[in-house]
Amino acid sequence: MKIRTCVRNGSNPLGAWAPMLILLTAAPALLPAQVSLATVVDLAQRNSTAVRMANADVEKAQAALAETKDVFVPSLTFGSGLPAFPAVGFTGGVPSILNASVQSLVFSLPQRQYMQAARAGFQAASLSLKDAREQVALDASTAYIELDTVNRELDAAHQQETFAGRSVEIEQERAEAGVDPSSDLLQARLTAAQLKLKRLHLETRAATLAKQLSTLTGLPTGSITPDHASIPEIPAVRADDAGRTSDVIQSARLLAVSKQKVARGDRMNGLFPTVSFNALYSRNTTILNDFNSYYSRSIPTSNFSSGFAIQIPVFDIGKGAKARESAADALRATVEAEQAERQSEIQIAELTGNLRELDALAEIASLKQQIASEQLAAVLAQLELGNGGGNAPGATAQLSPKAEQLARIDEQQKLEEALDAGFELAKARLSLLRALGHMEDWLHELHAK
């Protein structure tokens, strides 16, 4: 958040206290607060440099389209040729106080091709802008969902550390009493140290994601707390679902069409005539010159001429070279469009394969979490009621208090694994949505949530 003070010295009775008061007033806005995913996506799209550059490309393409049309609109130019010093002899030019010229293109077949090329270029730039917005939305959504996942894993990690600390205390007491060997105490301390390292790793990852979201949205670092309820369910799409052509491919195709139109226009430029209109008016002067002495009659003060200029190409080797250059550019753009289509097909195939595996991994992680919960419930019941076998030969030994802590640690571990698997599945689904051209549908659902 940028705080701007507009206080002039001498006119503010608070003087130097004004910036501090403004800072204190804005302090609550700097505190972490729950921000919905839709808000984060909107802020990221507005703050994105890629989106702004794509928007500039759209404005440039729009201006280029207007330029191809405006050549048919007459242009008016005013000028003056007043002499600076007295003229000596016959110079061939008549000084004018005022001159005006009107020019416009009347007929040109190549120009129609250039107009169509500019229109296709504008459409390609518009699709590139849409693609840039969707890419920013994908990046912001992925970072937001991952931060929400990491925060939930951090809660589980803190609980694991609590259980591990309790396990160390229990092992300390049992080791001092001679019930368990010292190796069990060392193992409990090792488990606690490993859980601490994992918690530190999660905190580092959360800080990195917070910085990433800050860079994407322009908000202060750490001011965004994900709201899990604002994340809509990501649909489980498949590659064989009816999908739209992605904006990247459509943009590449239109860019190739634009290049082809330019090449056709350059080729026609050396074959077909062009017609233009010209008009000229001049207000001549005899100040500081004696031009009238060189003519049998005095030069008229007002002069006007107009006409159509017809240019018929006969031989121009330069235009032929320019046409070949444009044709090569068109061929390259066409090949690039084909390459984009093939890469998209490969990406969709890879995402589809990964999605099936991640879906199975998420199911396995969920089942493991359920099993860990059932095992914890069984351990708690056995600790409360006993093993039911007494001291009879072959009976199961009574569980020690440390078994509860280990079961609780395992349950939280399985919860973290399930959260990780769920995030990877969500990330793959979002990527496949974008590759299939359904990202816009999900964004509409996101803003409607």
Question: SSE layout and pairings?
Answer:
Elements: H1 17-30, E1 33-35, H2 37-47, H3 49-70, E2 75-79, E3 96-107, H4 109-176, H5 182-217, E4 224-226, H6 247-269, E5 274-284, E6 302-311, H7 317-385, H8 401-436, H9 439-448
Parallel strand pairs: 1-4
Antiparallel strand pairs: 2-3, 3-5, 5-6
Helix pairs in contact: 2-4, 2-5, 3-4, 4-5, 4-6, 4-8, 6-7, 7-8
Task: Please explain how this structure is put together.
With 449 residues, this protein is of the alpha+beta class. The chain has a domain at 35-82 and 93-338: Outer membrane efflux proteins (OEP) (Up-down Bundle), CATH 1.20.1600.10. Helix content is 64%, strand content 10%. The protein has helices spanning 17-30, 37-47, 49-70, 109-176, 182-217, 247-269, 317-385, 401-436, 439-448; strands at 33-35, 75-79, 96-107, 224-226, 274-284, 302-311. It has a 4-stranded antiparallel β-sheet, with no helix packed on it. A two-stranded parallel sheet has the order 1-4.
| Major β-sheet annotation | 4 strands, antiparallel
Biggest sheet: strand arrangement: 2-3-5-6
Question: How would the global form be characterised?
Answer: elongated
Class of secondary structure makeup:
alpha+beta
How widely separated are the two ends?
27 Å
Pattern of helices and strands: HEHHEEHHEHEEHHH
Describe what is shown at a glance.
This protein has a domain at 35-82 and 93-338: Outer membrane efflux proteins (OEP) (Up-down Bundle). 64% of the residues lie in helices and 10% in strands.
